[in-house]
User: What shape does this take?
Amino acid sequence: MAESEGNKAPRGVRLVITLVGRTNAGKSSLLNAIAGQDVAIVSEVAGTTTDPVAKPYELLPLGPVTFYDTAGLDDTGALGALRMAATKKVLWRTDIAVVVVDAASGLTDAERGIVAAIRRLEIPFLVVFNKADLAAPAEADLAWCRDAGIRSVSASAATGQGATTVKEALIALAPAEAMREPVLAGDLFGEGATVVCVVPIDLAAPKGRLILPQVQVIREILDGDATAVVVKERELEAALENLRRPPALVVTDSQVILKVAGDVPDDVPLTTFSTLFARYKGDLPTLVAGAAAIDRLRDGDAVLMAEACSHHVQADDIGRVKLPRWISQYTGRDLRFEIHAGHDFPDDLERYALVVHCGSCMLGRMEMVRRIRECVRRGVPVTNYGVAISKVQGVLARVLRPFRL
Assistant: This one.
């Protein structure tokens, strides 16, 4: 497990593995045993870990992962309640959970409660009976796991016993897609093809660099032994004329889709970075269906604009300025737009007529999928920025054409 490799991968593509359990169950020690090095602070003093702590590593064959070490489930008082809330937020973006139990103390209502919460979120998990060098897990606890269909492992962080077994269990629990290279656009072009990427440089563009979705698509083009041509929207028409043959695909920033759609011949496949991410990180058909709800919005409706990251807001911010304006102009309705940024997701989703989510480049796939599922479960339409922009600009059918939905 190499820290340098794990740190290089973008946060949104790393598998998230979260350790939960009561205070002093040995979560931090177990993490150190799995990692084979001291990555978490360990102390005899109960409650050393007070907030979720992220540790990026390379766990082969899964690749880059992020381990989260969390506060004890039995943390008490007002501050303890806040820490528990922070742990639950981490679970929202967790791909695999590890419930760590002090074998001597055994399973309590605290562990059973977190198991129930993990199951509601449909997170793969296992129970590790830690400190097995001091006491064997009770037969009743093992039976409870068996009867509930829960995989359990005995381990000792102090001696290293069971660390390899825990790793093997984590690998076995990993979603199938974690074991293969994710595809953004690689199935839409072949070796030797040319893909044109349209990248506007506006006030929101980060100085001296491209945003992550653009970088990831360009890298995938290069990995696919194809040619990436990167231009601003004003140079697109000239770039297309300079190509000896039409490109296999044009991918554009959603904010200029209307102009780009006018410049790109109709027989050339065209889509947006955000639409690619709707498929890569979420559920494209559901997000497309959610965009249809824009036509049903009424005066006074509340629309949630959900952002995965916090950033400095510019005068032409897409989620706070441009897209709300475009939706309002398209519908002709007096709408209320509310912003939620970061890993927080509202509990009162039912009061929104529509959720419009960002491209989720900073979220793991499972966190985005859970957000979509929660919206669907509560009957709230959900779409994403790129799909919504294409909808209100009247080009959604064309943008979706490469995916043959």
